[in-house]
Design a protein that fits this description.
Length: about 425
Amino acid sequence: MPARRLAARWVIPVEGRPIERGAVLIGGDGRVIAVGPDDVVPRPADAVAEAYEHGLLLPGLINTHTHLELTDLAGEPPEPDFAAWIRGVRQRKAGRSPDAILAAARAGLAASHAAGVTTVADTGDSGAVIRALAEAGGSGVAYQEVFGPHPEQLAESLAGLQRQVESLGVFSIGRVRIGVSPHAPYTVSGPLYAAVAAWARAERLPLATHVAESRAESELLAAADGGFAEAWRGRGIPPPVPLGCTPVEWLDRHGVLSEQTLCIHLVQAGPADLDRLARAGAAVAHCPISNQRHGHGAAPLAAFLERRLRVGLGTDSVLSVGTLDLLAEARAARELAGLEAARALALCTMEAARTLGLDGETGSLRAGKWGDCVVLRPPAGGAGLPPEEQVLASGPPDVLATYVGGRDVYRADRPV
């Protein structure tokens, strides 16, 4: 790949102040060589040179929670009964062919690139997303899901997960990494959680789990009550052990929390829960729009940040939110926690990279990091705003181009 030089009206490195009339030089190896004013950044004769006279150039966005294999299931809005909604999603998933699931994963990745996202942290059970990422030379972590709410399913579920991770390892290449995801406390028994967490530590695999998302989940773990508990009783599944715990405490008691753990949602979490997470070094995927659409409430984002937890933003699935607009999540997070524009933007760039342990490789524009970039057209009427404010006022329709390691994966003038 030839070197690529990108110039724009504003370059927003995230690590450092915005640069008016700036440029980024990306080497043939896909890594940033230089960032700075346009008249300072080198102009190699053999580099592909592109100039976005009015554009905003910033690091590629990082989506810390997606379900790209569900991209083809968008349509109906979430229903109020979350337990019933989850059952419906599983039924809809079961009716698709492997080819249809792979096509959905590919479409979801293409839509992510079109929305300026260059790295995804995806959870799914089909293996389609890690294949789509590998095929596209993409960047991300694909967490392979495992289910098994009955303790008697432990051996079978764990063995199945291990076989899947081994078979999908062929796609864990380049910038694509595989992880594991015991789905949630309402679909995974305590013994299975403990076994998966222990195996993940031994194999040095990142782990992600949905936790403390809904009130029904909290009711299940507190007193074997609520919608999920009713469904368990109907299937002859014994109640969780021990009862009387918050979801975070329950995970901690089963040895799940560590620096390799990504906790998704965390709406139903109090101060003691956040202290546990901070002690363990666990990270958070915050999905404010999904939380609101499902009626779960608002996660305590300000408290996450006060405790210096690693927090990144996620869109969740198109089933929950209808779109993969990560900048809309940044606006929602900003309003929720009263953040400055630069801090809100960091939650889907540099801070999101820290959440996934990738901050040495991506998340900002700095020499040595991957040349992951997105270029946005400035929003109408935003010319007088600071560049970070202009970015937050933008969305997928404003994406002009997306680059992963200096390679263009989306252009507005080219069909997706």
